[in-house]
Amino acid sequence: MSADKPKIIYTLTDEAPLLATHAFLPIVRTFAGAAGIEVESSDISVSARILAAFPDRLTEEQRVPDTLAELGRLTQLPETNIIKLPNISASVPQLLAAIKELQGKGYAIPDFPDDPKTDEERDIRERYGKILGSAVNPVLREGNSDRRAPRAVKEYARKHPHSMGEWSMASRSHVAHMQHGDFYHGEKSMTLDKARKIRMELVTENGETIVLKPEVSLGEGDIVDSMFMSKKALLEFYEAQMEDARKTGVMFSLHVKATMMKVSHPIVFGHAVKVFYKDAFAKHQALFDELGVNVNNGLVDLYDKIETLPSTQREEIIKDLHECHEHRPELAMVDSANGISNFHSPSDVIVDASMPAMIRMGGKMYGADGRPKDAKAVMPESTFARIYQEIINFCKTNGAFDPTTMGTVPNVGLMAQKAEEYGSHDKTFEIPEEGEANFVDADTGEVLLTQHVEAGDIWRMCTVKDAPIRDWVKLAVTRARNSGMPVLFWLDPYRPHENELIKKVELYLQDHDTEGLDIQIMSQVRSMRYTLERVIRGLDTIAATGNILRDYLTDLFPILELGTSAKMLSVVPLMAGGGMYETGAGGSAPKHVKQLVEENHLRWDSLGEFLALAVSLEDLGIKNDNEHAKILADALDAATGKLLDENKNPSRKTGELDNRGSQYYLALYWAQELAAQTEDKELAERFAPLAQTLAENEDTIVRELIEVQGSPVDIGGYYQLDREKADSVMRPSKTLNDALASVQV
Ligand SMILES: NC(=O)C1=CN([C@@H]2O[C@H](COP(=O)(O)OP(=O)(O)OC[C@H]3O[C@@H](n4cnc5c(N)ncnc54)[C@H](OP(=O)(O)O)[C@@H]3O)[C@@H](O)[C@H]2O)C=CC1
Ligand SMILES: O=C(O)CCC(=O)C(=O)O
Ligand SMILES: [Mg+2]
């Protein structure tokens, strides 16, 4: 293989996207290979990341390289081209399940120490800590985010609108957030006048200094925030909201992002569970402590830990838990058939996807009886929760959005170099005792920002570097120019952090030619209102937002506009010059894996991946001056358009065309486009036979892909698939496989 052969790095991730890759990668390799492009896979699944963390516990054959670290290094090189599929951002219950599966497969990795006591346990806990939550994205996303629905996708949604629940003026659904004592309330922020090393320390009431983070190095012009959430205020808020929901007879639901805010939100989640079941906790606290029950990991943790108890004792606890429901509101359910409630696990309800689903369903969630009902959506932190109340108000007044006429809301999101909450993971602390929580200049001893905190409060530092802000502003201007759409910066001058950002945005906009562009800055709530007024008139508006709103809005609008965020194009122009091409915003869809395993039907839509690959190839073509890559990219774009026109997306129902069938049609149209193009005769000739074989055998291939459906399949694991088994499940058409294998590479 020549050293300078252009290369795409294709990530292997988890769950549904990984299964889809088993079918799609051979297609990609066939097409790219014929054009002289190398496609290298890189396993960043949660299981691979676990194994990479414990080489000392594994045999030589079992060891795997630290691919994430390697990919992180590559993001710094201008030639890097990565296709990044959604991966599991693991909660503790997911991590525990993955560990158990790997141990069962003979890997001598250690148990997860929830409450480490020895040095060895602390070391293990630290290694696992790096795998938990959003561990991949902050490393790879070394650029800002550009997410949008391409025109063809938007037109498809207009022609084939998804279902939308009705909204009524009488809907009782609403958002509840804290009014004081949350991160928004007490936030302090500053732009650094010079490069500084900052220490995070707590000076307790009795004068002791506890260093929580010895040093964070920041540069001149970087923004740094200190914020805390008061435990006392949080508990009072939960109590009041639960009582309000009970009295008014509306269902209670909790929406957090325990994966991305992997330190703070599990704590916030755990408090909700403890308040809801406070009588049972009061009665059994000593036993729960002894058992090491930690409901920050969900009620599932409690149920697992009491498994070891004698049955009478266990049943008494369960009875006491059930009794709490008598004095509490009805809880929203994740899986009513199996009694799985919103409190079961912190990663079952993830706010970016769960709130749009509720809004799409006319403001409803499922109750214990399996019926959709109005719900109180509790999001303690008010900083971003307010946007959801604004859109709910809008729907109550104007009714549900109409996908056939609504405008589109692309996003330009600030996230590079661990911007904002992405960088807070190792700078978030649960405060051990009352005192002053200070940011101190490690060289001069100067106190830069200070907060008065109490035991149990959550205190954190968020930072955003200056260079990513410049890059974000540039990306927003470029998108405004290329799309002709107005850009709104969703920034709230009352929030100290965003006020610092506003100053920079105003300054850096001056570096660009903005003549004729419509660029405005508005607070989040006003931005939402302004955008929605345009949306219902069919007008498009780019949202330029910070990292959390990037995450929230890039599920919210696509889910309303397209039915799923998986149909979106998601590009990360890496600041060092390379590119990362992601697939929509949708997650890794555990429910889809269940359907595949039980019925051999994969409803996962790989459209986002097709769109990402086309841009990746285009970029490769431009940067390497590689005509083949450009032709492949154009042909793939056209093929994706045809796929949408012909409506060959996966069906949700077993027995109909699924992900594999959709990929077959993509390969057919792609080969046909290549065979038909006249720019490169050799490439046309290479693909003509494939186009012909795939077309001639359409009935056979589709039959082979559909007739296997309907019965369970074995993929050899959940977190670590058996590659061969997964290949055979995901590639059941011999005719298709032979046709692909016949292409000369
Ligand atoms: N970029 C990344 O790496 C991301 C990773 N995640 C991770 O994914 C996991 C699950 O996240 P969660 O938020 O619960 O979301 P899910 O993956 O469960 O997605 C929510 C729903 O959206 C629909 N959906 C999502 N993607 C597709 C697709 N490609 N084709 C068709 N439908 C799709 C499915 O609806 P239906 O079931 O009705 O078919 C799915 O159940 C978590 O571990 C999370 O951290 C989440 C977001 C981004
Ligand atoms: O980083 C994560 O954990 C989730 C990312 C996500 O949901 C997104 O980027 O849309
Ligand atoms: Mg998201």
From TrEMBL:
Statement: the UniProt record of this protein carries the keyword Magnesium: yes
Name of the top EC class for this enzyme: oxidoreductase
SUPFAM superfamilies: Isocitrate/Isopropylmalate dehydrogenase-like
GO molecular function, one term: isocitrate dehydrogenase (NADP+) activity
EC number annotated for this UniProt entry: 1.1.1.42
InterPro entries xref list: Isocitrate_DH_NADP_mono (IPR004436)
Cofactor(s) the protein needs: Mg(2+)
Catalysis performed (reactions): D-threo-isocitrate + NADP(+) = 2-oxoglutarate + CO2 + NADPH
Protein origin, superkingdom: Bacteria
Keywords of the record: Glyoxylate bypass, Magnesium, Metal-binding, NADP, Oxidoreductase, Tricarboxylic acid cycle
PANTHER family: ISOCITRATE DEHYDROGENASE (NADP(+)), ISOCITRATE DEHYDROGENASE [NADP]
Family: Belongs to the monomeric-type IDH family.
Protein name per Swiss-Prot or TrEMBL: Isocitrate dehydrogenase [NADP]
